[in-house]
Amino acid sequence: MLIPCPHCGPRDLAEFSYQGDATRVRPDPASTDMKAWYDYVYNRPNPSGPHREYWQHSGGCRAHLVVVRDTLSHEIISVAFAHAGLNTAEGRQ
Amino acid sequence: MVERESPLGAAFRPGRHGNLSAGPGLRISEVTPSGIAEAAAWPGMKAALAEVISSVTALSLSAEPNTGDVGPESSAFSIGPQRFLVTGGADLPARLAAALPLEIGTVTDLSHGRTAIRIEGARAGWVLSKLFAIDFHAEAFPLTEGRATVHHDIFAQIQRISPNGFDIYVFRSFARAFWLELCEAAEEVGYEVAG
Ligand SMILES: [Zn+2]
Predict the structure, then answer these.
(1) Which of A70, B81, B88, B177 could form a disulfide with A75 if both were Cys (CB 3.0 to 4.6 A apart)?
(2) Residues from chain A contacting residue B139 (CB–CB below 8 Å)
(3) Per-residue pLDDT of chain B (195 residues; tens, 9 = 90+)
(4) Are B26 and B186 in contact (CB under 8 A)?
(5) In sequence order, which residues have a C-beta less than 8 Å from that of residue B36 and are 6 or more positions away?
(6) Given 3.30.1360.120, 3.30.750.24, 3.30.420.140, 3.40.50.150, which CATH number is that of B18-32+113-193?
(7) What count of CB pairs under 8 Å joins A to B?
(8) Nearest C-alpha of chain B: how many angstroms from A92?
C-alpha cells in the first residue's frame, strides 16, 4: 500500500503509523453522559468501504495526515494534512 | 574547543573493498559539515523562511515540497512541511538564528547530532534502493532535491548532490551502524572508502 503524502509524494506503508479513526467526535469534556463516553472510547463502526483515518508520516516528514482509505481495496481516496492551515500553505493538492 | 570525533571509529576503513571485478562501483565518504541546523517556519511562513535561509547561505530556496539547493559552502533542502535541513560552516546555526525573525520561525542546532555520509558512483541509486523504499531515479528524485525517509526506523534525510551522488544525514548515534550496513549493501558492486 502506498500513501501519497502531500509533502513527500507516494511512500510505502512502512513509513507511516496509524493514528486512529478520524470520524470520532469527543463529547464535551464536562459531559457526564456515560453512553457518549463509552461510544467515544470503545465503539467503532468498522465500515466496509471508505474510512476517514489519521495517519502520521512518522518515517518521513513526520506530518499528521487525514487519509480516506477504502477498507476493502486499500485504495487511498484522499490525503490531506491534519493541520488544516498546512493544506493551503503547502502541499500538492 | 573540543575537537569533534567521527562516530564511525574503526568501521571507517579507507581503501577498496568488496567485489572489484568491474572496479569499485561506488565511493563512500564521511562529509559531515561543521554546521547543521533545522529551520522551521510557522504555518504559512515557509516562503519567508526559504528567503531568510537563501540570504544567509547564498542558496536559492523555495517553499516547494522536497526542493533544495547545493552551493559551495552550504546546502539545504525541505524535510517536511515548513521545515528545512541547512548545512554550512561552524557559525551557520548562529548566523541563521540571528537572521531569522521569531515571527517567521525557529532554528535548532543539530551540528552535534547528525553525521553526513556521501555515496557517489554509477551504482549509488542501485545500492541505496536496497536500504530505502524511495525512488532514486533522476526523474523521480531530481538534482538538489531532498527526501526524508527511514531505514529500519533509523531516520535518514537524503539530498541528491550530483547526478550520481547523494548525501545522507543520519543520527550521529546510529551513524556507525548505518555505515556498516551501507558498506555491506555496497559489497556486491565494490566500493572505495575515501580517507
Ligand atoms: Zn511526508
Answers:
(1) A70
(2) none
(3) 677 789 999 999 999 999 999 889 899 999 999 999 999 999 899 999 999 999 999 999 999 999 999 999 999 999 999 999 999 999 999 999 999 999 999 999 999 999 999 999 999 999 999 999 999 999 999 999 999 999 988 899 999 999 999 999 999 999 999 999 999 999 999 999 987
(4) yes
(5) B85, B86, B87, B92, B93, B109, B110, B111, B113, B114, B116, B169
(6) 3.30.1360.120
(7) 64
(8) 8
